[in-house]
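Per-record layout

source: Leeuwenhoekiella nanhaiensis
name: DUF3137 domain-containing protein
length: 238
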Amino acid sequence: MNSNSRAEPFLRNHKFYTKTPKAQNKFLLALGLLAFAVLLVLVVLSIYTRIYFIAILGFAIILSLIAPFYDVPSLKKHGKMIYYAPLFITEKPNDGLIKIHGGTLFDYYFAIDRNLNGRERTAYIMYEYLNGLLALIEAYKDQPQLRVQGTSYIINERTAKKLGFKIGDTNGVQKLILIYNYFNILLSNSIAKNKLSFPKLNNTKTFEAQISDLTQHKVYIETLRDALNRKYSWRIRT
């Protein structure tokens, strides 16, 4: 048997979670060895050139790139991260707040079909984001006052408002995290666009809504989701 039958139905398009545990561990081991080999080369280069910043910077970049491949599956396994769609994840509710994430580099690598072009990939990402948002609304329909918060440089302010969100400024800590993860975001953005694409972090916005706000916009969310499905039905895997 070469697939994991225990994967949730909506994660059937996420190639990591359809792997057997043995295959998952094999991939993570190979990734770790590759990262170690690259870091070793950078350390040797730093010693040879006496430019030690090369190794320090290289370590930070490598860590930011591979971290989600280990963190996300582990957090999911322990119930600290919850998938509502292949490219829509939330943290566990805490003090009446749910933090949402529109997929990580790990998810982009495993969930986006490499045969899609840039426009189709962007449509698929948005399609799954809307699917996840609808699933979240359904899951917490009995807790209308629960707040939902996310940060994005992809979703523009106009679209966010139509989905039911209010826009706020990104705080200093969030900005520092984004700067640290710049190369991670660069690679994610490039996968999403199917070409080298530098993210515009200055466009990053924090958006927030209550479940009740999202519920009021549920019809629009469904309409937009269905429109994407009709337009790209031959490419979007449902």
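summary: The chain has one domain: 9-231. The mean pLDDT is 91.
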